[in-house]
Amino acid sequence: MTYEIIEEDGFKYVEAGKGETLVLLHGLMGELSNWELVIERFKDRYHIVVPILPIYDLPILTLGVKALSRYVHRFLKFKGLNQVVLIGNSLGGHVGLVFTVAHQEFVKALVLTGSSGLYENAFGGSFPRRESYDYVKEKVAFTFYDPAIATKELVDEVFKTVNDRSRVIRILTMAKSAIRHNMAKELSKITIPVSLIWGRNDQVTPPEVAQEFHELLPNSELNWVDKCGHVPMMEHPEIFNAFLEKFLERILLK
């Protein structure tokens, strides 16, 4: 799939389909391609919007999960969107949670997969050997259950990013913000339906994190994807999409 990135009024995003709106939020190192098979599966029945979160564009002094939540708020108002389904992976899930606590009236339902917000074990807040290609390759493979998913193309992209001084400073700033912003005391405020779709072998946000989310979110369901790491929609897209489809049908097609 070739994405047409739309740029208008300071926003960059991908848009496809018609119907109820699904807003897909990518992670800290996530690419639009992470969502490719979700877009392909649902674009014939739903309106799908994927905003590019301005991790590399916002003023560094204000960069954090709250700033990205405010960006999502401005974006949804700009697009005239309301009662959307927010679907977030990793940092994108965390941003979705912060946004939902502040603006629950905009969100009909929430889907979290490998979300931060309680705990994550990513790069440990630093890149001590970022100049080493093998080290970066090992860290990218850590994201998946099957290390073969960490293709050379994917590793090359991450290696390029973490060796760009400006970008790596922003990534570390963003990661520290996410670690500081623990959501445990706020999750009870989220009363809309939430679907947790989690890799049973996730080493970044381990299974106990999903279980804690499930216990703290009052209207949540927990779905496990076996032999799967931190990015289920990439590693097992058929299973991820099946869980997502069942959830959407339950909450939207009543």
From TrEMBL:
Keywords: Hydrolase. Residues 21-237 form the AB hydrolase-1 domain. InterPro entries: AB_hydrolase_1, AB_hydrolase_fold, AB_hydrolase_sf. It comes from the Bacteria. The keyword Hydrolase applies. GO terms for molecular function: hydrolase activity. PANTHER family: MONOACYLGLYCEROL LIPASE (PTHR43798). This is Alpha/beta hydrolase.
